[in-house]
Amino acid sequence: MTSNSAPPTPEAARSAGAASGMPKVTMIGGGQLARMTHQAAITLGQCLRVLAASDSDPAAQVSADIVLGSHDELDDLRRAAAGAAALTFDHEGVPLQHLRALEAEGVAVLPPSKALHFAQDKLAMRVRLAELGLPVPEFADLAGDRTAARARLAEFGAANDWEIVIKAVRGGYDGRGVWLVDGADEALAVFDEYPSDAPALLAEQKVPMRRELSAMIARSPFGQGAAWPVVETIQRHGQCAVVLAPAPDLSDDVAKQAQQMALRLAGELGVVGVMAMELFETVDGELVVNELAMRPHNSGHWTMDGAVTSQFEQHLRAVLDYPLGNTAPTAPLTVMANILGAPSAPEMSMDERLHHLMARMPEAKVHLYGKGERRDRKIGHVNIVGRPGESMESVRERAERAAQWMSRATWTDGWDVHS
Amino acid sequence: MTSNSAPPTPEAARSAGAASGMPKVTMIGGGQLARMTHQAAITLGQCLRVLAASDSDPAAQVSADIVLGSHDELDDLRRAAAGAAALTFDHEGVPLQHLRALEAEGVAVLPPSKALHFAQDKLAMRVRLAELGLPVPEFADLAGDRTAARARLAEFGAANDWEIVIKAVRGGYDGRGVWLVDGADEALAVFDEYPSDAPALLAEQKVPMRRELSAMIARSPFGQGAAWPVVETIQRHGQCAVVLAPAPDLSDDVAKQAQQMALRLAGELGVVGVMAMELFETVDGELVVNELAMRPHNSGHWTMDGAVTSQFEQHLRAVLDYPLGNTAPTAPLTVMANILGAPSAPEMSMDERLHHLMARMPEAKVHLYGKGERRDRKIGHVNIVGRPGESMESVRERAERAAQWMSRATWTDGWDVHS
Fold it and tell me: At which positions is ATP bound (chains A, B) (predicted)?
């Protein structure tokens, strides 16, 4: 693997850890990813420090080391970083100039700003991937002069029979900042109505796809890489709903190709920590890169119960330049299903719903985030580890049934859930 | 299973939970058991509240809900219990009269004081077990008038060829409060030198034993019971060093007998939560009850990586009257080895030792407690989950090698470790 980078290492600040002599990691953002990273930190003899907006954030509810503040404020970031061996992220929203300032002050920002740039800026990512010869959909840059950009959109759309998607270059997640447009009029309307002071747009070819995959890997500053099995992700309403691990009926060659692409890219960009490379598998069986996330990712939640090393422990190992843990699955099949806020919160409390689920499915591994219920908000997930000889369809049915119950207090008989 | 008890249930205080609507559990004591219970609480959408003596206690380092105080002070216990759905324990040291006072005030003390009594008082436990027809070693009560008690010791010792052990009725753990005496002179000397204001003593027949076992079970207020596989525990210097799960070469009948004894006793005593019944397997293959612990226990640490449901999650489920989780092992063999403080702390930091272990053994599951290093102090543990077809001897060798390294920064080639 090529490594063209020497990111700052955590050695310098290492001794400034807790009384136990273990290093301190700071995570920016107090969401569920930080919450679950804290669980992993406890095992490693640490306590995760979290920069959270509120003490009711999922991670702030459970960690003993909370810095309240904003990820947009350099001073808050500085306070959170003080004495930490590494500074890392629960989300991609931290302004890059702040991270560069912290790096200049000697903070071990991991992944480093120069890598994180490509997770924050979808256009830069596509340009860089294309330079590296990695497969990305055709795309058009819609930044700059509005009139010229509109003309580029019209040209790109026509060239692709208007089978295109419009995306904000920055700030989108879980389906936000993505417009699935149906034809020229709708595409141009999205462009025309888009505020000129918002992040730039790009247009992208809609890939004729069979399904979505995710290749989750980790990379340490030392340059060690580790890949979990490639998974299939099932999206609903533009966000991840279900993850099948490993991706069913995926050839070893294609799986290996996806892992190699992710490991190579992480090396080229100087990524440190875990990284999810979201991929389309086209109807022709080709792989195309869709998105990158340089942090623990929804497509890796199955590793908490289905792999020797979870993505959260691995992320800590990587940012601390520990050797990486074994990524082998502990069972042939694991399915993760997100628990989403229902259109209207069920009358039955979450506590009671959990009680009933435990009675009906003693083997379900439920992970709750301590979040209030809002429509389609990710408030938890369920992992089901397959029984010996069980089919993926059966494991998935159990996982979806459990998640559906936790979301809505209704049992379904199958997994083909539409809302 | 017989249940002659109706312990207070957590329903009343249940709605007084966190913003997320999940219940709050308070654990008395801030040690590693509370630390690991907090990890399990996070998964269930909760944050464990901990009554800790110091904010550097293992659990206080990592939980967002710490009450500083003493388990000997009723007011501190009250503060910790306020608004909690259940009050439970990291150790057996809380004065029973305080727990009775809390129960009278409506606190759901789980296990209830009437059950916990038998885990606190070894004499009461032996008397009760004998009444229930459960096998205990012969014993003699050495409380009361010193002269009469000394005569009882002399008589009991002679009747057992001085193959006896002297134990403090209360307060012993990890080999403290236990005297392995060699002959009449030593036994009588222990008795004569023992302070008259300390907890009473008892003498007990030294059982000709093949090995020690532990039957770990859980019981809910509803009366549901669940048993993990019976394990073998290997003691060194009077404390647990290694746990083999399941106990090798244990017949199904004897294993089932141990589980049934533990489940029956939990029902008879009204235990709520997890309970470890420590047993001797005699040279004749009989089982004799040695000790009881009504809390997560060292002999159950293997469940964190080797069973579908860990003892920590199960304890929370039980005290909240949730249905209990699946206790099935996730692998044929798991071995736990304690990481103990070395006679003199190694020059290499714990952080560096962990680094090296991860490099050498990527599959080791290390759990660190955030404790300072002191000779023979339990500061962490390692779980090794066996590979398919691997022998128990081989899994054990890996676990002992890992734990030895973490303790002393020296590698051993075998597991026959003496210090």
Answer: 122, 167, 204-207, 212, 290-291
Of the candidates A19, A350, A359, the beta carbon closest to that of B20 is on: A350
* Antiparallel, parallel or unpaired: β B86-89 and B201-205: unpaired
Q: Do B22 and A372 touch (CB under 8 A)?
A: no
Using a CB-CB distance cutoff of 8 angstroms, which residues of chain B are in contact with residue A385? Answer: 308, 330
Instruction: Please tell me whether B205 is known to bind a ligand.
Output: yes
Tell me the pLDDT tens digit for each residue of B371-416: 999 999 999 999 999 998 999 999 999 999 999 999 999 887 655 5
Question: What does each C-alpha distance from B126 to A361, A364, B115, B138 come to in angstroms?
Answer: 38, 39, 13, 9
Q: What is the mean pLDDT of residues B175-202?
A: 89
Residues of chain A with Cβ-Cβ distance to B44 below 8 Å are 354, 366, 368
Q: Residue A122, annotated ligand binder?
A: yes
Q: A62-73, pLDDT tens digit by residue?
A: 999 999 999 999
Asked if the Cβ–Cβ distance from A43 to B367 is below 8 Å, we say yes
Return the sign of the alpha-carbon dihedral for residues A63, A64, A65, A71.
Answer: positive
pLDDT of residue B413: 63
Of residues A196 and B391, more confidence is placed in: B391
> Is residue B186 annotated as involved in ligand binding?
no
> Which CATH architecture is the domain B11-120 placed in?
3-Layer(aba) Sandwich (3.40)
Q: Which residue has the higher pLDDT, A419 or A289?
A: A289
Specify the pLDDT at position A18: 44
Cβ-defined contact of B44 to A368 (cutoff 8 Å): yes
Average pLDDT, chain B: 92
Number of A/B CB contacts below 8 angstroms equals 156
* Fold assignment, B138-205: Dna Ligase; domain 1 (3.30.1490)
Q: In CATH, which of 3.30.470.20, 3.90.1170.50, 3.40.50.720, 3.30.70.260 is domain A209-408?
A: 3.30.470.20
Buried b (16+ CB within 10 A) or exposed e, B343-372: eebbeebbbebbbbbbeebbbbbbbbbbbe
Cα–Cα distance for residue pair B333/B396, rounded to 1 Å: 9
CATH 3.30.470.20 in chain B, residues?
209-408
pLDDT of residue A81: 98
Chain B environment of A349 (Cβ under 8 Å): 21
CA distance B324 to chain A (A): 7
Task: State pLDDT tens for residues A167-185.
Answer: 999 876 666 788 989 999 9
ipTM of predicted assembly, 2 dp? 0.92
Is A290 one of the annotated binding-site residues?
A: yes
3-state secondary structure of A25: strand
User: CATH 3.40.50.20 residue ranges in chain A?
Assistant: 11-120
B167 annotated binding-site participant: yes
Distance in angstroms (rounded) separating the CA atoms of residues B34 and B46: 13
Which chain A residues have a beta carbon less than 8 Å from that of B372?
Answer: 19-20
The whole-angstrom distance between A247's CA and the closest CA on chain B is 22
Tell me which residue in B21, B35, B359 faces A350 most closely, judged by beta carbons: B21
Could you give the CA distance from residue B329 to residue B309 in angstroms, rounded to a whole number? 9
Cβ of B349 within 8 Å of Cβ of A21? The answer is yes
A298 is annotated as contributing to ligand binding: no
Q: Which of B35, B350, B363 sits opposite A326 (nearest CB)?
A: B363
3-class SS of residue A355: helix
The angle formed by the CA atoms of residues B398, B399 and B404, to the nearest 5 degrees, is: 100
